[in-house]
Write a structure and sequence with these properties.
The protein starts with a strand and ends with a strand. It is of the alpha+beta class and 79 residues long. The protein has a four-stranded antiparallel β-sheet. The protein contains two helices and four strands. It is globular, with a radius of gyration of 12 Å. The protein has one domain (4-76): Alpha-Beta Plaits (2-Layer Sandwich).
Length: 79
């Protein structure tokens, strides 16, 4: 089983929630376009003015996806 990495994009400000939700749409489009098996995405509230959009990739895909999509940060993903 491959290690999974959660790639994270941070959005801050009064429009952060809507921006993160919209960004997730683009992440789903990317996963479909690249025909990637793992299709885990989401949005999470960090605070009232800080939301994140994320996608999970397997470690071998990390570099190519990171270079293509430029996430703000990443962390090991636990199921």
């Amino acid at each position: 089983m491959q290690e999974k990495i959660k790639l994270i994009w941070d959005f801050r400000g009064p429009a952060a929630e809507k921006t993160a939700e919209h960004h997730e749409i683009h992440l789903k489009d990317f996963l479909q376009m690249k025909d990637m098996e793992l299709r885990i995405t989401g949005c999470e509230k960090v605070s009232d003015f800080h939301y994140i959009a994320f996608m999970v990739v397997e470690k071998p895909q990390l570099i190519s996806v990171r270079d293509a999509l430029k996430p703000h940060r990443g962390q090991v993903y636990k199921d």
